[in-house]
Amino acid sequence: MAFWRSKKNDSSDESTAPETSSASSPATGEEASGGLFGKMKTGLQKTRRVLGTDIRDLFKAEGRLVDEDFLGELYARLIRTDMGAGPAGRIRDRVAKDFRGRVVHLEEVVETITQDIREQLKQDHGDLAKADSPPTVILVVGVNGSGKTTSIGKLSHHLVSQGHKIVLGAGDTFRAAAVEQLTIWSERIGCEIVTGPSGVDPASVAYQTTEKAVEIGADYAIIDTAGRLQTQGKLMQELEKIRRVIDKKLPGAPHEVLLVLDATAGQNAISQAKGFSNAAGCTGIILSKLDGSAKGGVVLPIREQFELPVKFVGLGEGIEDMTKFDPDTFAAALLEA
Ligand SMILES: Nc1nc2c(ncn2[C@@H]2O[C@H](COP(=O)(O)OP(=O)(O)OP(=O)(O)O)[C@@H](O)[C@H]2O)c(=O)[nH]1
Ligand SMILES: [Mg+2]
User: Fold this and answer.
1) How far does residue 314's CA lie from ligand 1's centre (Å)?
2) Closest atom of ligand 1 to CA, residue 322
3) Superfamily of domain 134-332
4) Is the pLDDT of residue 57 over 50?
5) Which residues pair with 217 in a beta bridge?
6) pLDDT for 191-238, tens place per residue?
7) Dihedral, 199, 203, 208, 209 alpha carbons, nearest 10
8) Beta strand 166-169 with 3-4: parallel, antiparallel or unpaired?
9) What value, to the nearest 5°, has the Cα angle with vertex 305 and ends 302 and 309?
10) Residues forming the annotated binding site?
11) Which DSSP letter does residue 297 get?
12) What residue spans define the domains of the chain?
């Protein structure tokens, strides 16, 4: 599994937790040595505080009787991470089924919860799509400020560091600053970028980006778009047009339409996902800003309610602060001490 991380941690939260791998983490081999588990734990620190710490507080050293009181308290703590009633209820019911009437220790319950979260998060097609023959065209969409441009920077950096040739497309033509922002990323990464004059039809930039990718034999074209609300019909139609012209230039493209959801939006992210996945033909999710959120549990209802796999998670603003989403690592990182 791919992993990349900051050499220098940006947030103060991160600086307090070293990136160590754990013997009991599901990460193995290269991943463990790369510190995927530690990175995920650090990034999830705010959610961990709500979930892990609070659940630990339910227990005394001698254990705790699993009765209705306990199950109610457990449920309330699960809900605080924005995981929603469905997933929280399922975890509570599983703990009830396994342990009701018994005095249990923290570790047993944490193990069961971790296992349940892992199962709820299971997904197919978690890998980034790859075209049969290059270039793979990736369109990135989402509401204003969700983290689209930053996620493109991080993803591009990762792909370039794997030896791929990429072209960025500055499809957010509304604001000059947006083009500038992506241009800065392209300079940092050292890759090509296609831009158009301010206010130009974003579909034309998308077309030219695809064309450029074909022309220079790029492996990936990654196209940024302006933020929009899923309720803005006209702007959603604009995305449809962008997809159409890309397909015209390269039949079958875009191969991936990534929806960037801001984890700090919690349950609001769900309604965004609904609107976008219907209107924009999304194929996967990047869940950004998990480091800034205590609502990391929101990934459960996202997985519950959508066919869309969560492909990447953003764990900071730095160029390497993104990891591929892995349910096992995520579940363990949420709950392990
Ligand atoms: N902490 C943290 N901040 C992030 C992450 N991803 C993005 N950000 C920050 O969120 C803010 C918005 O990010 P952008 O990438 O500009 O978001 P956008 O969706 O492109 O915004 P618009 O183009 O205005 O719609 C910036 O300050 C980013 O640094 C993340 O994973 N963690
Ligand atoms: Mg942007």
Assistant:
1) 10
2) 31
3) P-loop containing nucleotide triphosphate hydrolases (3.40.50.300)
4) yes
5) none
6) 999 999 988 999 999 999 999 999 999 999 999 999 999 889 999 999
7) 100
8) unpaired
9) 55
10) 142-149, 224-228, 288-291
11) G
12) 33-119, 134-332
Which listed ligand is nearest to 12 at the C-alpha? 1
Ligand 1 contact, 318 CB (< 6 A): no
Q: Is the CB of 146 under 6 A from ligand 1?
A: yes
Own/partner contacts of 60-63, CB < 8 Å, gap of 24 or more, are 62/103, 63/103, 63/104, 63/105, 63/106
Per the listing, tokens 């254990």 go with 63
Backbone torsions φ then ψ of 211, nearest 5 degrees? -60, -45
Q: Which ligand is nearest to the CA of 151?
A: 1
The Cα-based distances of 282 to 172, 256, 266 in angstroms read 18, 7, 19
Using CA of residue 138, residue 139, residue 144, residue 149, what is the dihedral sign? positive
User: Can you read off the two tokens belonging to residue 231?
Assistant: 């309720």
Q: Residue 159's closest CA among 252, 21, 258, 249?
A: 258
Architecture category of domain 33-119 in CATH = Up-down Bundle (1.20)
Q: Does ligand 1 come within 6 angstroms of the Cβ of 52?
A: no
142 lines ligand 1 (CB under 6 A): yes
**176, 198 Cβ separation under 8 angstroms:** yes
Tell me the one-letter amino acid at 288: S
Residue 172 Cβ contacting ligand 1 at under 6 Å: yes
* Cα distances (angstroms) measured from residue 52 to each of 35, 41, 97: 20, 11, 21
pLDDT tens for 238-281 read 999 999 999 999 999 999 999 999 999 888 888 888 888 888 89
Residue 251: asked if its preceding bond is cis (omega within 30°), the reply is no
Query: What is the Cα–Cα distance from 326 to 333, expressed in whole angstroms?
Result: 11
116 C-beta closer than 6 A to ligand 1: no
Which residue ranges are tagged as binding site for GTP?
142-149, 224-228, 288-291
Q: Which atom of ligand 1 is nearest to the CA of 11?
A: 1
